[in-house]
Each structure stands twice: as C-alpha cells, then as structure tokens.
Design goal:
Layout (H helix, E strand, L loop, with lengths): L11 E3 L2 E3 L14 E4 L13 H12 L3 E5 L4 H7 L8 E4 L4 E4 L4 E4 L6 H9 L5 E2 L4 E4 L3 H11 L3 E6 L2 E6 L4 H12 L6 E5 L5 H6 L2 E4 L5 H6 L2 E2 L4 H15 L13 E6 L5 E4 L6 E4 L6 H14 L4 E5 L10 E4 L8 H8 L5 E5 L8 H19 L4 E4 L2 H4 L18 E5 L7 H4 L4 E5 L3 H12 L15 E6 L6 E6 L5 H11 L8 E3 L8 E3 L2 H10 L2 H9 L2 H10 L2 H11 L6 H17 L3
Amino acid sequence: MDFFRRAKTTTLYIGATRIPPLRRTHPPTMRYFALAADYDGTLAHEGIVSPSTLAALKRLKDSGRKPILVTGRQLDDLLQVLPAYPIFDRIVADNGAVLYSPISRETKALGEPPPPAFIEALRFRGVPLTVGQVIVATVEPYDTTVLEVIKEQGLELQVIYNKGSVMILPSGLNKSSGLAAALAELGLSEHNTVAVGDAENDHALLGLCELGVAVANAIPTLKERADLTTTLPAGLGVEELIDQLLLNDLTGVKPSRADQQIVLGKRVDNEDNVTINPYGSSLVIAGPSGSGKTTVVRALIERLVQNDYQVCLIDPEGDYDQLEKFIALGGASRPPEISEVFQVLQNPKSNLSINLIGVPLADRPAYFGRLFPQLQELRSRTGRPHWIIIDEAHHLIPKSWDPAIGALPEKLSETVLVTVHVDSVLPAALKSITGIIAVGPSPEVALGQFSKAIGFPSPISEPLPHKTGEVLLWRVGEADGLIRVQIEPPSDETRRHKRKYAVGELPPDRSFYFKGPEGKSNLRAQNLNTFIQLAEGVDEETWLHHLRQRDYSSWMRESIKDKDLVAEVREIEDDPASTVQQSRAKVIEAINKRYTAPE
C-alpha cells in the first residue's frame, strides 16, 4: 500500500465539529532543528567571524534549522562587532542573562541588575569592571576580591570563568538557562538542539543540549565532555559541523546524555537494565484486557516525561486523564478541537492526553485521520512531539483503514501502538515498527500476529511460563532480540491502586458483603472506605462470624491483592485472645495506615 497516497478532499464531521480537508504530509527527516553556538573562540577568531562561517550559517538557516548565538559578551558590544547578527534567530548574551530577538529587536533581561552597592564596592577596591544589564565582568586575578565582596554583602551571586575572564551573575543564570529561554520562544526542545563551544562557560551549554560539540581549539575538559570534537578550530570547525548536519543530520554520532536511553525494566536472566532508544524506536504494546498493558504504557510515559521528551497520548477511552504533568483535552461531552491540540503542543514542555470518549467509535478513524498527519507536520517543523502513543490502535488504525480518511507516513517513528488485537491493526502501519512488548500469559499469540504482519519469523512458537510483572520484548532483527523483562512500574502505580481500592467502586462480584451467620444482612462494601464504615457499625455477632471464617483476609487476597495487608489481617483473624473490639480496631488500623490515611 502506498502510504503517501493523497487523501481525497472531503468534508468530515465528528459530531458537530467540522474537520478541514486533509493536506498531504511527509515524515520528519531531521532530528536537530537548532544549532546553539558560542562566539569568541568558536564562531569567531580574534573577535571576527569569517565570511565562510557566515555563509555556512546561512546554509544552516536555509535548511529550516535555527542558528542561535550564545555568548558571554554583553549585547551592545556584540552588536557592534558582528554586523551580520540578524542571521541568528535568537541571541543569548551576557552569558545567559539577556535574550535578544534580531527580528523584533526586543531585548529581555532574564535576571535582576547588579546591586549598586556591589558595583561601588568593587570599584572602590580597584577592580576593573564592565557592567551590563545583568552581568558584571572583570578578569583574573580580581575574582578573589569579587568573592570577598559577595560574601561580605551576603549576595546570591555566582562567579563564572571563561579563559581568564570572570563573570558575575545572579545564581542560576548561565548559558544553559539563557538557551532554554531562547528555545522556549522558538518552540523548540533541547532534545532537538546541537551546541558547540570552546571554553569553561560552555559546559552548561553543552550539558543542556542533546548533542554537545567542542571545536578543535577547545579546552581539554570541554573536549572530554563533548560527544564530538571537530578536526578544525573555531569557525572552520563550526563550518565542518554544519556541513555534517546538512549532509546526514549527524546520524551515527551517539549522544552521551544519561537520558538518551529510557529504562523499561530489568532483564530477568541477569538484572541488567533494559532500555528503549528515545530516537529511532517504535513499539507495539500488546496483550489481552487486564494483562498489564496500562502499567507498561504508564511506566514508559513516566520515563519519557522525566527526561523532558514531549509526549502526545491519543486516548480513545479516557483511561489516562489523571496522568501527572499532562494536559487532558476532550471528554464525554465533546471531542477535543484539533486547534486546541496544537495550541497545547506549541509549548515544548507541555504533554498532552487527547480523550476521544466523546467521539463515536465508528468516527474515530476519521478523527485520527485528520489529527495524525498534522502531528507529523508539526514534527517535520520542530521534531515534536517526541513520542506519539496511540491507545486502542485497532480502533484508530483498523485493518479496514480507508486511505480516503487520512494518510500515514511511510515510517512510524517514535510511536507506540497499544492494542488487544495486533491482527486487527492495519498491517502496513506495523511494518516499520522496530519492536513489540508482549504482555500477559500468552505472549506467543501477540508475537505471532506481529511477525505475520511484518513478514519476519516469530522468535517463539510454544507457550512460555509467565509471571506477574514480566513481559517479553522483541527487538526485530537484533541478535539478542527477545528479552524477558521485569517491568519497573511507574511511581504513581501504588498511589493509583490505593485510590482505586480506597474510594473507587469494585464490581459486585469483587465487593465484600457483611451477611452474618444466618445471612440476614447483605451490606455491600464496594471499597475499603465503605468497608471501614460498615465494619464500625455491624453487630458483634456479624463481625465475629466473618473474622472466624477468615473472610476478611480472603476478600483482601482476591480483590485487593495486597500481600502485606492480607498477612496482617490473617494474623488478627488467627489470634484467639483478641476480643471483638480489639480485632475490629486492628483490622481498621491495618487498612487505614496503607490506604485511607492522608499521604
């Protein structure tokens, strides 16, 4: 099937919402959308940027990427020595304290100006100074005097060094914080940015970005920190870097940031971490209802968000509305407007859950067919959202997918398809998926369906033993491709289960019923809060009847599935010396301390 077949221009409606005509989209081809470069010693040699370096920056800009200048120089000085400054989309000056837009000529101070008393004290002691909007600069060895005055006046200021220069700034301001402000204005993420520098104050710059580069003349410690060192110095090195960016987007240069690998869990056989590459990977998460897919999805989402990757979750059933650090759009009353979706996603730090419960089941593929190409278009301009997670993929991209209602890219990258039925998902959507996480007691079923769709032999054919919390990860085409993984659960899993059992509503067949020895009562406890309320009010005969039959611990074992709670309650039930009042108080206390006490 041709995934780039142009969709027919039709007018679609989801309820009363008009969906505008579909435009053809292309898959993202770039990983890096911004280059953040230092000035002196990096772009410039002896204060001057050569014509060839400026030409390289223009080529970079013409490719759709954003050149950003990040310098320790004060803004006024920089604008005088660099007439070609409009080539940059943003300038971060004063070592991160001032942000300037060459297009609008707007200047924004990112910190407070230096206290007049501080400046006066330094001048009184003979320290040579230049004073900017926020920064105060001098040279070594006057840093000793600067530190003395900071201590004497009790100021929250920091000293930053740069090849003999000494810069004094408010605490927390540096090239990293200044670049972060610039990227926010441009709607870009540090995960889509390359930084290049040469000196001490560039450590923070390289530390923020996905890929850090040192020019050949950089100090040794920066070269050690960098992911790549150019073979040529200063501006020539930047030209070399730009040429590689334009040639292949630096494919093959592996970033060293710790968050480059997302921890899924541990191998069962040797307890090594099992990781997912956040760039270039795509996954199916498959298994029957109730098998634990949601736990795996939540764990993956939590790790991505912790590491500042933007996540867009398409949630047909509204199962993820309570995700931390997510904005949820849509609900039972109406579908989310597509314009709302992209208003949220314009902020690189915003994660989004799109609740489609208000979209009729039959209309969901059409809605998805409108939404997904526009998500891909946003990716082609910004690299975001970094990950798209599609729950109930068999409903949104069904086997019967009609190209007239939408288009998918040739390759699904940084995408997760979550499904109960792999064989009900459009096979062409599965062909570029790089791996599958099979969840539940019969992983060979999901693996077999996936292997058939992609035309690759399944790694197993026989049923395998299964333990709770374990999944099978198959990385297609890798020598050690099939791994049994103990999932590292999301940190909110315990809190979520506590809320569910404390105040949620268990179905009738999993609720507890206070009936008494003759079955005269039928008081239903659909959660632990209700259990406590009823336990406090039932007569002693009813309480003792269930206690002696170990009904309380049996219910908690079957419905609450909390081994520690079950063990404690079983011990109370088995204590013949405990009175009715004592046993009742102890059981309630055991529940309270685990579930209903304030956190």
